[in-house]
From TrEMBL:
It comes from the Bacteria. It is a peripheral membrane protein. Pfam families: ABC_tran. Its main location: membrane. One of its GO terms (molecular function) is ATP binding. This is ABC transporter ATP-binding protein. Keywords: Antibiotic resistance, ATP-binding, Nucleotide-binding, Transport. It comes from Nocardioides marinquilinus.
């Protein structure tokens, strides 16, 4: 059993580089995932996310970099890492006729516990005898989670966790991942579903063209890249223009738009609180407009801004310039 020293991250990658046929697709990635965290890896198509997690799981050999996964080196001991990490299968991963209980037997290693409680936890206890091909999309995803967790891994890699699920099934799977985190399992989530990332992740790492362009909590990323908030409301008819000038001077407000009685304040997050305080101070509780609303940027807005920004030069370009 490998020992991760106390405080040692579950995943620690420095300078990971990988090329296919001379084309660099992972270009000096650093990544740290602390034990017990849920970390999302997001980015455009072809950014190098899957290649990165395949290198981490000992499924691909990197060209350069220092990698430690649960205290093991996936380059020197890929088989040890594969035995420690739970991975989620893709949808085509099981034959249609295989029953749930047969799949569980097939995937159980020496470390596996009794699968019964796991199947119950993921709502599949009463589905054991059903063939994989007859399960709904949500049940399939939950079965993949059961199989990823069967051998009691301390780290699970989940790729496109909720792809194709309806909103109820997606929330079901979210609850399952939250339970995993509560139980101390470390989760690396590769996803294009930013709602998943926002709901589940302690930290999100954004990749573009083979490199990490930023990382942080979803809230940090939104604050850094999401752009302005907008506070909208209607003033009571006949409110003097001077009032609106006042609004423009509130801390955090950068711009005021007024069309008739409809007002939109744009600015940084503190503008929300100051606009609320201003409204209460002017009219008391009764003066708070019935249509008061706040538009806040989300992780999607932050990601679009990050991925649209001009690309910094790659390591390759930098070498050519030097
Ligand atoms: N086995 C391979 N041989 C050659 N090129 C590959 C191979 N696997 C991936 N690539 C290329 O490497 C680049 C990075 O692919 P990768 O799958 O790691 O990106 P990704 O961020 O996971 O993309 P997506 O979000 O589309 O799944 C892509 O341009 C892809 O076409």
């Amino acid at each position: 059993m490998p020992n991760t020293a106390a405080g040692e991250p579950a995943i620690h990658v420095e300078g990971l580089r990988k090329a296919y046929s001379g084309r660099t697709v992972v270009d000096g990635v650093d990544l740290r995932v602390d034990a017990g965290q849920v970390v999302g890896l997001v980015g455009a198509n072809g950014a190098g996310k899957t290649t990165t997690v395949e290198c981490l799981q000992g499924l691909r050999r990197p060209d350069a970099g220092r990698l430690r996964v649960l205290g093991e080196d996936p380059v020197r001991h890929p088989e040890r890492v594969r035995a420690l990490v739970g991975s989620q299968l893709q949808d085509s991963g099981l034959p249609d006729r295989l029953r749930v209980e047969e799949a569980v037997r097939l995937f159980a290693g020496p470390q596996a516990g009794d699968p019964g409680p796991l199947l119950e936890t993921f709502g599949l206890g009463h589905r054991r005898r059903l063939a994989f091909g007859t399960l709904s999309g949500g049940e399939r995803q939950r079965l993949f989670l059961v199989l990823a967790l069967l051998n009691r891994p301390r780290l699970v890699v989940l790729d496109e966790l909720t792809q194709g699920l309806d909103p109820a099934a997606r929330r079901d799977v979210w609850r399952s991942v939250a339970r995993l985190r509560d139980g101390g399992t470390t989760v690396l989530l590769v996803t294009h579903e930013l709602e998943d990332a926002q709901a589940l992740c302690d930290r999100v790492v954004v990749m573009r063209d083979g490199r990490v362009v930023d990382s942080g909590t979803p809230a940090d990323l939104v604050a850094r890249h999401g752009g302005e908030v907008t506070v909208r409301f209607s003033l009571p008819p006949g409110r003097p223009a001077a009032d609106v000038d006042d609004l423009g001077r509130l801390p955090g407000v950068t711009r005021v738009e007024r069309r008739g009685d409809a007002v939109a304040l744009h600015g940084r997050r503190p503008a929300i609180a100051h606009a609320g305080a201003w409204l209460v101070a002017r009219g008391g509780e009764a003066g708070v407009p019935f249509d008061l609303a706040v538009d806040q940027p989300d992780l999607e807005a932050a990601l679009i801004a990050l991925l649209d920004a001009p690309a910094p030069p790659s390591a390759h370009d930098r070498q050519e310039v030097a």
